Amino acid sequence: MPEVPSFIQLPSTEVVQALTHESWGEKRGINKQIPRKGVLFREGENIRRAHLITSGLVMGTRKHDGRAVRSLFVPGDVIGLEAFRDPSAIHVSTGKALRDTEVVSFPIGELPHMMMHEKDVLEEGENAVLFDYFGRTMERMTHEAEERWHIKTFGFSINMAAFTLHKLAHVPDDEGHLQGVSQEVIAQASGITRETLIRAPFPYLTEREIITFVPDYHTTPITIHQPKELLGVAYDFDEAKKWLALKALSEKNNKAEK
Fold it and tell me: Which of 52, 92, 104, 135 has the most CB atoms in a 10 Å sphere around its CB?
């Protein structure tokens, strides 16, 4: 099994302070609270401000070939980061908060110019913090999107669900419960149905004592016991394929016996 990267990178206090530095004036970042089910951005809108998630969860949804395609954003993700390079970029989905969410909203299109030509606004150290953070975040989120496509294309429902749960692995409360994250949300973010989720990925992960869940209750918190194991499962296509084949054979034999 090759070493696989982590996609978790929580924003530091220094990053938030640099974005909301009062010396930016009207261009500084603003702390915003988005209530559960509140809309943060809409598909087709020009990206004027980017949003750094500091707490909560956001689901982006768009239509493609008549189907809903979803993207999950967690603390540390920056929504609208593509406008850092392309000021004409637009939102490709509509984003709603899955729970009460806090973001730092800032004018992403102006940020490169401000950082390069208005260095007197920020202290040199704060400027370096932003350059470093956005550079690493763009690289991380681009790589995450590529890996998600790879797993979705070549993997199975087990792999996709494990990938989604890994992205959520730093969201649980102190006891490891994914409060406010329904089974339906995890299924949607994984590109599968809830029925598929509770038929294969969840039993597979439960057998390995990575998570626990209650099949009959949609809103009962999922508990993550071994978050570091999730990404390994996400990339282990062969093991997932073998387990699914054995499960299908077992179900076939059970039906034949009846």
Answer: 52
Q: How confident is the model at residue 118, as a pLDDT?
A: 56
Q: Return d(Cα 108, Cα 46) in angstroms, integer.
A: 11
Cα 31-33-38 angle, rounded to 5 deg: 140
- Residues facing 211 on adjacent strands: 224
Residues 185-239 pLDDT 10s:
899 999 999 999 999 999 999 999 999 887 766 666 788 888 889 989 999 999 9
> Would you say 10 and 16 are in contact if contact means Cβ atoms under 8 Å apart?
no
Closest by CA to 188, choosing from 218, 161, 159, 222, is 161
Cα–Cα distance for residue pair 46/103, rounded to 1 Å = 18
pLDDT number for residue 126:
64
Helix spans in the chain (H): 13-19, 111-117, 124-154, 157-167, 183-190, 194-199, 201-207, 227-235, 237-257
Distances in whole angstroms, Cα of residue 43 to Cα of each of 47, 64, 83, 183: 10, 12, 14, 25
Q: For residue 221, which of 161, 256, 175 has the smallest C-alpha distance?
A: 175
Strands 177-178 and 94-97: unpaired
What does the pLDDT look like over 162-188, one tens digit per residue?
A: 999 988 877 756 566 676 678 888 999
Q: 209 — alpha (psi -120 to 50), left (phi > 0) or beta?
A: left
pLDDT the model gives residue 139: 84
Return the sign of the alpha-carbon dihedral for residues 123, 126, 128, 131.
negative
Q: The whole model's pTM is what? A: 0.82
